[in-house]
Design brief:
With 285 residues, the protein is mainly α. The chain has one domain. It is built from 11 helices and no strands. It has helices spanning 2-20, 28-47, 61-85, 87-95, 98-108, 115-132, 145-168, 173-197, 205-231, 236-259, 265-284. Keywords: Membrane, Transmembrane, Transmembrane helix. It holds the Pfam family EamA. It comes from Stenotrophomonas mori.
Length: 285
């Protein structure tokens, strides 16, 4: 269970770092670039994936390239959502992206439907409505925050769908992650060099250091989640629910207590519904 706790902590730490980035004068695009350098190196060293399957003709390169674009893109979107809508609402929107990915699993991948999952989907949709309502006090978010929350919701669901396509191809998830991280780093580095040469954003050492820390937290979330499943191989639904509910609850505590984020009654209702929805979906797994 300690792996699950560490995974939850790393996930929330990513949001905390994104919240702190503007206050530290961090160029978030540069930080996200170096994040993928750290994630690539750590994946290679700690997960030790076999890349043999990627030499086969059935390697899912369109999905892998899609991940290489979607992963840094959603990171930039999440950073904007955390800044404008706060950690509390952004973490809930991120975790409720499973509603869209679950719907895609029903429609595109033929996953069985049952009453628990349908009830979870219904409550989850209500949770999204509640969480998206802007709190009317300082720290609760900006008028534009809702569109970034919806972008987080849709973006993480897209990543889940791409990962599902990779899994169905038979490519090991560790190999897919390493390749996606490495491609994302190359693409982002090219963009940062272009910005640097054009004089729009000079490469700075403090962005490098912050990005490596962000990458360590991002990779830690993945590593400990994998380890949690390995430690409890017969309890995938428990790990799934514990991870998502843990992030929602810890993110709410950190956002309110550490950053003074304000939440409305609708936000708190949405948070509660999100916890119940995730539990129902896990029950139906």
């Amino acid at each position: 269970m300690h792996f699950l706790i560490l995974s939850v902590a790393c996930s929330v730490l990513v949001s905390v770092l994104l919240k702190l980035a503007p206050r530290r004068g961090i160029d978030i695009a540069q930080a996200v670039t170096w994040n993928y350098l750290a994630a690539s190196v750590l994946s290679l060293l700690l997960l030790r994936p076999s890349l043999q399957s990627l030499h086969a003709g059935q390697a899912p390169w369109p999905a892998l390239l899609g991940l290489a674009l979607a992963l840094p893109g959603i990171f930039l979107v999440l950073a904007r959502a955390v800044r404008e809508a706060g950690i509390v609402r952004s973490d809930v929107a991120q975790r409720l992206s499973l509603l869209l990915s679950l719907t895609a699993a029903f429609v595109l991948f033929g996953e069985p439907v049952n009453g628990w999952k349908l009830a979870g989907l219904a409550l989850g949709l209500l949770a999204i409505v509640g969480v998206s309502v802007r709190a009317g006090a300082p720290g609760g978010g900006t008028p534009g925050g809702t569109r970034w929350l919806l972008a987080v919701w849709a973006g993480f669901a897209l990543i889940d769908i791409l990962l599902k396509q990779v899994a169905l191809s038979g490519t090991p998830s560790t190999a897919a992650l390493l390749v996606s991280f490495a491609l994302a780093f190359v693409l982002m580095l090219g963009w940062q060099l272009q910005r640097h040469l054009a004089g729009r954003s000079r490469l700075r050492a403090h962005n490098l250091g912050f990005g490596l820390l962000l990458g360590a937290a991002n990779f830690g979330n993945i590593l400990f989640y994998v380890r949690a499943h390995q430690a409890l191989p017969h309890s995938p639904a428990t790990i799934f629910a514990g991870m998502n509910i843990g992030v929602v609850c810890l993110g709410a505590l950190v956002g309110v207590l550490a950053f003074g984020e304000r939440t409305s009654r609708w936000n708190r209702l949405g948070l509660g519904l999100a916890v119940v929805a995730i539990a129902l979906i896990a029950r139906g797994a």
